[in-house]
Write a structure and sequence with these properties.
This protein is an alpha+beta fold. The protein is built from two helices and five strands; from the N terminus they run αβββββα.
């Protein structure tokens, strides 16, 4: 079962709109974009994994929570860039 800290990292990685670096329990790393997160539930008994589009590759990889040592948000969060652009445009519009 995933620790509360790992679950926080999983949620942050899923919400992040940029690349993440996943350090696996064996010390290897996977860098890419998390496009899917499935938690184990009665309806999804095989859950507790992330689906990742591997950086600089066409590979898609499923990483089980049990394989993960830690997750770092390492790429630019493009959603923040969009929010910044919206704020700048709203401020410009308010100025007249």
């Amino acid at each position: 079962m995933a620790t509360p800290e790992l679950l926080k990292q999983v949620e942050a990685a899923y919400d992040h709109r940029g690349h993440v670096t996943i350090v696996l329990a064996d010390g290897k790393t996977v860098e890419g974009f998390v496009y899917n997160r499935i938690l184990k539930t009665p309806r999804m008994p095989d859950g507790d994994y992330l689906d990742v589009m591997v950086k600089d590759s066409e590979e898609k990889r499923r990483v089980r929570f049990s394989e993960i040592g830690s997750i770092a948000l390492t790429g630019k969060n493009h959603a923040e860039s969009f929010a910044e652009t919206q704020a700048r445009l709203a401020a410009k519009k308010a100025e007249g």
